[in-house]
Amino acid sequence: MVNAELKAFIASEIGHTPADPRLFEAAFTHSSATGSSYERLEFLGDRVLGVCIARLLYERYPNEAEGQLSHRFNQLVARETCGEIGRELGLPAVIRLGKQARDDGANWSDNVVGDVVEALIGALFVDAGLDRAEALVRRLWQPLVDEQRKAPKHPKSALQELAAAKALKNPNYELVRRSGAQHQPRFTVKVTIATLGEAEGEGSSKQEAETAAAEALLEKLQ
């Protein structure tokens, strides 16, 4: 049964009274804690989020090409974005984790908070249908969509274009180290463009670290 704190959170922040409270109990439970974890709901919620964001962008930018919409989409569904939204909602206070994971601060990480956001969307989809889940996505993501005055260019694409413009080889990405707990890994990646420079970046996945490294090098070269 959903405890009083979690029930109050769902009512106040999501505006929903669960028909099946077990779905939401699972959505807030990390695999390090006892009980059903959020992993299956996160899988589902990730797909629901994608459909909702795609439709929102399709409607909002009727004159943009597929490539521009994809740049916007990738930024909006990124793990960091989901983590940011989850922290603004206050999820770290209600996520259920095992003692070690909580001591490690996993309830504040982009990986865990982002997963719970997607699991919450998945739970709402199962419990109340697509319209209700989409209403939540639009409410939480609309401010971020409004801030995207033009379609962002992915840092790795921008760096590759810069190298090409200078007739240089493509950027080379190298994994420097992997650290952190198994449930909260940190990756450090170095990107190098011969004769132009190098920079390092960190992230909770290799892809995130590569993006951070590309951003760092672009800042150096600007």
Overview of the structural elements:
Belongs to the ribonuclease III family. Residues 199-222 are annotated as: Disordered. Mg(2+) binds at residues 42, 115, 118. With 222 residues, the protein is mainly alpha-helical. The chain folds into two domains: 4-147, Ribonuclease III domain (Ribonuclease iii, N-terminal Endonuclease Domain, Chain A); 155-220, Double Stranded RNA Binding Domain (2-Layer Sandwich), CATH 3.30.160. Helices cover 59% and strands 10% of the residues. The protein contains ten helices and three strands, in the order H-H-H-H-H-H-H-H-H-E-E-E-H. It has a three-stranded antiparallel sheet with strand order 1-2-3. Helix 3 (39-60) crosses helix 7 (110-128), helix 5 (79-89) crosses helix 7 (110-128) and helix 7 (110-128) crosses helix 8 (130-147). The chain starts with a helix and ends with a helix. The mean pLDDT is 90.
Annotate the secondary structure layout:
Blueprint (H helix, E strand, L loop, with lengths): L3 H11 L6 H7 L11 H22 L5 H11 L2 H11 L9 H5 L6 H19 L1 H18 L7 H11 L6 E8 L6 E8 L3 E7 L2 H16 L1
Antiparallel strand pairs: 1-2, 2-3
